[in-house]
Q: What sequence folds into this?
């Protein structure tokens, strides 16, 4: 009798272990979030990426669309506040039954910091691995394809934008103003930024942001080494200009954000949850071969 009971227990244990392994090894769906000047579905951009991932990994891929049309989605990248976008996407992903068991997420350009904001704010979704391609995690202080340090015209435009970026009108009207980060006036940035300063815990520590980000299995950040869109390009790895000037940059581990562990990155790095990847080329310029070799491991 005892032997029979022991045999049943062993069989049950094997069954449960087998099922656990199957769940852990099951490939998760993937969620994509496009960047500025793009949409969910252009065949030459994220529409193509969606088909590529569906065919090669064989999972459900959802490309986020804000609004009810491609035109509205395109405009959202400029005119719909990131806070509003994150609320919309949180509700949409929560209702998607195909994502109930969790998913991996890939953010392209500003979609990277939007997805990070989603992870930190939306506790009703389960993101396993977050990948950001060219994300501006510490913001930007320059115009796309306009080198402020070597062009007087670009520098003048940057100065003009700098005066307007932190007004209520621009913070509420222009998406890019919400992650404009002036290293020459850190106090103004922290007090006026309506998105980035919040998710980076610049004004006070929101413990739920820290807790939710730490739930990630891996946080993968891709930096494009010849990027002319993101200024400074180090923002893609949470680096930025050293406060008080706009020429010398510092790495993530030299920033107050890391040293004071304001959003949990120091802890995550010590737990080997953060991955820094480089891609040679300009902003979002990668090949399918590079993608397969470097990112598939975090999507399988």
A:
């Amino acid at each position: 009798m005892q032997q029979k009971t022991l045999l049943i227990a062993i069989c049950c244990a094997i069954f449960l272990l087998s099922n656990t392994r199957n769940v852990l090894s099951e490939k998760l769906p993937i969620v994509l979030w496009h960047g500025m000047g793009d949409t969910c579905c252009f065949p030459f951009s994220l529409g193509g990426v969606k088909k590529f991932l569906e065919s090669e990994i064989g999972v459900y891929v959802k490309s986020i669309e804000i609004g009810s049309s491609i035109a509205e989605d395109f405009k959202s990248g400029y005119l719909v506040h990131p806070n509003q976008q994150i609320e919309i996407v949180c509700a949409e992903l929560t209702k998607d039954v195909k994502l109930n068991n969790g998913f991996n997420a890939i953010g392209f350009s500003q979609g990277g910091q939007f997805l990070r904001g989603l992870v930190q704010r939306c506790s009703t979704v389960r993101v396993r691995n977050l990948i950001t391609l060219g994300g501006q995690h510490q913001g930007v202080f320059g115009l796309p394809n306009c080198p402020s340090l070597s062009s007087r015209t670009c520098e003048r435009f940057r100065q003009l934008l700098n005066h307007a970026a932190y007004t209520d009108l621009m913070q509420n009207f222009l998406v890019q103003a919400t992650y404009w980060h002036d290293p020459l006036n850190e106090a103004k940035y922290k007090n006026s930024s309506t998105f980035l300063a919040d998710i980076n815990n610049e004004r006070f520590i929101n413990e739920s942001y820290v807790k939710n980000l730490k739930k990630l299995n891996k946080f993968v950040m891709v930096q494009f080494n010849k990027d002319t869109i993101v200024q400074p390009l180090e923002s893609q790895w949470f680096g930025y200009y050293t406060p008080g000037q706009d020429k010398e940059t510092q790495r993530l581990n030299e920033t107050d954000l890391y040293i004071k562990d304001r959003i949990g990155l120091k802890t995550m790095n010590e737990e080997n949850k953060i991955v820094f990847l480089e891609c040679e080329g300009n902003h979002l310029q990668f090949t399918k071969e590079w993608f397969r070799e470097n990112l598939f491991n975090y999507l399988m």
Notes: The chain has one domain: 30-144+199-298. The longest strand covers residues 127-133. Residues 131 and 295 are 8 Å apart (CA to CA).
